[in-house]
Amino acid sequence: AWSPCSRAEEVVAFGDTHGWPVVLKATRGGYDGKGVWVVHDEAAAASALASGEANGTSWLVEEHIAFVRELSAQVARSPQGQAVAYPVVQTKQIDGICAEVIAPAPSLSDDHAIRAQELALRIAGELGVVGMLAVELFDTGDALFVNELAMRPHNSGHWTIEGAVTSQFENHLRAVLDLPLGDPRARAPHAVMVNILGGDVGNLYSAYRHVFARDPGLKVHLYGKEVRPGRKVGHVTILGDDVDDLLSRGRHAADYFSGKLDE
Question: Does the structural domain 190-258 have CATH classification 3.40.50.1240?
Answer without folding.
Answer: no
